[in-house]
Write a structure and sequence with these properties.
This protein is α/β, with parallel strands linked by helices. It is about 35% helix and about 25% strand. It contains 17 helices and 21 strands. It has helices at about 35-45, 65-70, 90-95, 110-120, 140-150, 170-185, 195-200, 225-230, 285-295, 315-320, 340-345, 350-355, 360-375, 390-405, 420-435, 450-455, 480-485; strands at about 1-10, 10-15, 25-30, 50-55, 55, 60, 75-80, 155-160, 185-190, 205-210, 210-220, 250-260, 265-270, 275-280, 300-305, 310, 325, 410-415, 440-445, 460-465, 465-470. The protein has a 6-stranded mixed beta sheet, with helices on both faces. A hairpin with a 2-residue loop joins strand 1 and strand 2. The protein binds adenosine-5'-triphosphate (ATP) and magnesium ion. Magnesium ion binds near residues 38, 80, 160 and 391.
């Protein structure tokens, strides 16, 4: 791709960038939230037409007038937000738009299901191609999106944060496939915020900052610090600025919380100003516990006490009214109104606080949004632009901001920095720490050990739906947590 520019109203998302992909090699595209990575992907897959620049394949100009044209030219992508259809089967989702047909021109279901099964098995997954997508977990859906991209016989494979929703084992499976694709001579563009993955799988890197390519090279010859410096234009040191907070009285007590299938007999106490980390492998029941605490699902037994008063939560609105909010892991699908401006999205759940009079409302909303945008390091052209135009990571910051704006007593953060770049991560961590210092009680689910170890006052480890232990900060170490999470005592 040569001299590519992409202009959106108010933003030059890409400014004359050039990148090269090579057969049999992985090129990592690295950059902060909003740097222009996904925009480049959308150009290379025919979704956007760039304002300037050209795409050359084997040295010959290739102009993509549609997504189909890109597929025909041998380009396939796993997008950051892959659109899949809940009501369709797994196989239909994989082959939608390019399904094998019988000689009579009708869909060849046998082939669709057979080939879907093969693709999924190559990903070490036993998902049945005939079941409906809506019955799958987040990680399984992601595998379907990956299988969909691989179902096109392509020479150029693009992966925009493919590992964000995957467990370590699934990442290993994916990387095995990537290595296979390499051996077949495919050219791969890989986007991730996780440096260990980048170094593991990629040969080359390109760093974007503010829509420009600011550095490229071979990973073997480049230290991580140097890449971070290129990304953020400064040194990033303290990613976990946990401030020491005086822990106060108990705020929330959970006793014997159980769910028919997902978790059993969970008890813990959360104090004022405390950050309680919840660690565990994917599937341990962490998110399900959070959802029950927030009233999305009902526990089969157990009791909640908030500030000494028994609390019965039957719905999310009960939880919000009581001062408990939940920022889910899969933020894209949970409650952003994409066509609405950022500031309205942020004030959505706290409308009662900002809507005293119609006239004051907009001004209040803006002031509120400005405060949280600043503290979360949100990168947007203006707070009046539609949330849907933000980069993936910046959309996540809006979701976090919108729940914080309700000024809750307890906030449950599920993987708070997933998809957030290393520079903003520090901002988000700093903010979480400040909130604790202001007396908010925080439950933080995370699969990232450094984050859990760096941020938590105490950590509850979950394994197969049970609490495998609660550890104080003094006793915390990676080894202790991993042992408890895997059951390898
Ligand atoms: N459809 C659009 N309309 C207006 N602005 C857009 C649109 N799509 C992207 N942008 C803007 O272009 C810039 C680059 O966004 P992009 O999604 O490419 O970032 P990214 O590098 O993928 O970030 P992330 O790591 O958060 O996914 C951002 O400022 C974003 O707000
Ligand atoms: Mg992106």
């Amino acid at each position: 791709m040569r001299g590519i520019s992409q202009i959106f109203p108010g933003v030059k998302a890409l400014d004359g960038v050039s990148i090269q992909l090579f057969p049999g090699q992985v090129t990592a595209l690295i950059g902060e939230n909003g740097a222009g990575k996904s925009t480049l992907v959308k150009i290379l897959t025919g979704i956007y037409r760039p304002n300037e620049g050209e795409i050359l394949i084997d040295g010959k100009p290739a102009a993509f007038h549609s997504a189909q044209a890109a597929i025909d030219a041998g380009v396939t992508a796993i997008h950051q937000e892959t659109v899949l259809f809940d009501e369709l089967s797994v196989g239909e989702n994989i082959f939608l738009g390019h399904a094998p047909r019988t000689r009579f021109g009708t869909l060849d279901w046998r082939q669709i299901n057979l080939r879907s099964g093969d693709l999924l098995r190559a990903l070490e997954s036993e998902i049945d191609p005939t079941i409906r997508l809506k019955d799958l977990s987040i990680a399984q859906r992601h595998l379907v999106a990956i299988a969909r991209a691989l179902s096109v016989d392509a020479r150029i494979v693009i992966m925009d944060e493919p590992t964000a929703a995957l467990s370590r084992k699934e990442i290993d499976d994916l990387f095995r496939i990537v290595n296979n694709l390499k051996r077949q001579g495919k050219a791969i563009l890989f986007i991730s915020h996780k440096f260990d993955e980048v170094y593991e799988i990629a040969e080359n890197f390109v760093v974007f900052r503010d829509g420009r390519a600011v550095g490229k090279g071979r990973l073997k010859e480049t230290a991580q610090d140097e890449i971070v410096r290129l990304m953020v234009g400064r040194d990033v040191k303290d990613v976990f600025p946990k401030v020491k907070v005086e822990i106060g009285a108990p705020v929330l007590a959970v006793e014997g919380y159980s769910h028919p299938t997902e978790f059993r007999d969970i008890s813990f106490e959360l104090r004022r100003g405390e950050i309680l980390g919840i660690y565990g492998l994917i599937g341990a029941g962490r998110s399900e516990l959070c959802q029950a605490l927030f009233g999305i699902t009902r526990p089969s037994s157990g009791r909640l006490t908030l500030e000494g008063e028994p609390l019965d939560i039957r719905s999310s609105s009960d939880a919000i009214r009581a001062g408990i909010v939940y920022v889910p892991e899969e933020r894209g699908r949970h409650g952003l109104a994409l066509p609405m401006p950022i500031f309205q999205n942020m004030s959505l759940p706290s409308l009662s606080r900002t809507s005293r009079s119609g006239f004051l409302k907009a001004a209040n909303e803006l002031a509120l949004a400005r405060k949280y945008a600043e503290r979360l390091d949100l990168r947007a052209a203006a707070l009046s632009v539609p949330v849907g135009t933000l980069s993936g990571g910046n959309q996540q910051k809006v979701v976090i901001g919108k729940w914080l704006a309700t000024q809750p007593k307890v906030i449950i953060l599920d993987e708070p920095t997933k998809g957030i770049d290393i520079g903003s991560k520090a901002a988000v961590h700093g903010f979480i720490s400040e909130l604790a210092a202001e007396g908010l009680s925080i439950i933080m689910v995370s699969s990232e050990l450094p984050e859990i170890l760096g941020m938590s006052d105490r950590v509850m480890v979950m394994r197969e739906g049970l609490a495998a232990g609660i550890f104080d900060r003094e006793r915390l170490s990676a080894e202790v947590l991993v042992r408890a999470a895997t059951g390898n005592a």
